[in-house]
Amino acid sequence: MVERSVTVPPGVGLHARPASLLVQAAAGASISVTVARPDGDPVNARSILALLGLDVRGGERVVLRADGPGAEETLDRIARVVTAMPPADG
Amino acid sequence: MSRPVLTVCAPVPGRARSLVDVPDPVFAAALVGPGVAVDPERGPLTARAPVSGRLATLRPHAYVVISDDERGVLVHLGIDTVQLAGAGFELLAAQGDRVVAGGPVIGWDAARIEAGGRSPVCPVVALDAAPEAVSRLAADGVVPAGTELFEWR
Fold first, then answer.
1. Do A49 and B72 touch (CB under 8 A)?
2. A62 three-state secondary structure
3. Cys staple from A45: which of A33, A77, A78, B13, with CB 3.0 to 4.6 Å?
4. Cα A3 to Cα B56: distance, rounded to the nearest angstrom
């Protein structure tokens, strides 16, 4: 299992628009990816319902996990999507 | 055995619109999910639950109701309204509440949102639904609140 911890940029919450960007990135992977709060249960990164339910706010950390071929590259790519999310005011 | 059809109702009175007409590229491309938008009547409104279930996520400008068979419907009041940080929205329910379709969730004023330079159009989205699972019931035209908007198979 590969893990990446990534901080959601300040001013960005995992609300509808950024959550859908994360779902898109995860849907493009050939392996399953989960997202969790640092001490929380992982949720399927392809489920926008699950991501919205995490209620992640700007400045908070999430842990991405994946297993299998290409897991490192997949998580690197998804981590970049998260850190590049534009703020709501932008 | 297939599950029952979930009928999703208009959370606000107004006119039904295709998601492609929503002035936000992510909603318009159905990247949040398939569904239908409502262009609301301008003035003070009560945004209501589109289905019966649990109010799983509640923000001043958006909410998700999860039906008894675990399907989530998102109602997003206006576009870019997250920027308002709750100003102009009054919570009429609490996150975690059980709600019935048509029950009050948020009080807001679509005219005020528009006066602030934002679109008051409300996407109503079937989260994680396959596009073909959603069939629109309301043609473009007037929909009173509570009118059936789409079916989710």
1. yes
2. strand
3. A33
4. 28
Does the residue B86 lie in any domain? yes
From A2, A9, A11, A15, active-site residue: A15
Domain boundaries A2-83, CATH class: alpha beta
For A20, which of B26, B56, B82 is closest by C-beta distance? Answer: B26
Chain centroid, CA A79 distance in Å: 7
A80 Cβ under 8 Å from any chain B Cβ: no
ipTM of this predicted complex? 0.87
- Residue-range definition of the domain harbouring residue B88: 6-152
The domain total for chain B is 1
Q: pTM for this structure?
A: 0.93
Residue A54 appears among annotated catalytic residues: no
* CATH number, position B56: 2.70.70.10
Question: B80-128 pLDDT, tens per residue?
Answer: 998 898 999 999 999 999 999 999 999 999 999 999 999 999 999 999 9
